[in-house]
Design a protein that fits this description.
Length: 106
């Protein structure tokens, strides 16, 4: 039983490392939103367009956080389907969760 548990832990560790590599690749491939380059006036205008309230006294960094964390842009934008890499990551995550649950790891 000890060898099986150790083999599962080893496989889980390898999967986690592979997952981390894929996430780094995905993160590098994602375009930036360019909010840091905007002026405070432009950021406040974007906040107003999204219907965010209580923005008049916020600093630039706080406005950027509100834009990133707040309600998304207009609901008329179509939802994008996950890419092949995103689908693979979703499947890997589900597998890791199942293995962790089987091993009793939370």
């Amino acid at each position: 039983m000890g060898r099986i548990a150790e083999a599962l832990r080893s496989n889980l560790r390898e999967l986690a490392q592979a997952d981390a590599r894929l996430l780094r690749e995905l993160d590098g491939a994602l375009p930036t939103d360019g909010l840091e380059e905007l002026t405070i006036k432009q950021l406040k205008e974007r906040c107003r367009q999204r219907g965010l309230k209580g923005i008049s006294s916020l600093r630039k960094a706080e406005l950027i956080l509100r834009l990133r964390d707040g309600p998304s842009a207009p609901a008329s934008l179509p939802e994008s389907k996950p890419t092949g890499l995103e689908a693979r990551l979703d499947r890997m995550e589900a597998l890791l969760l199942r293995i962790a649950a089987h091993l009793g790891v939370e």
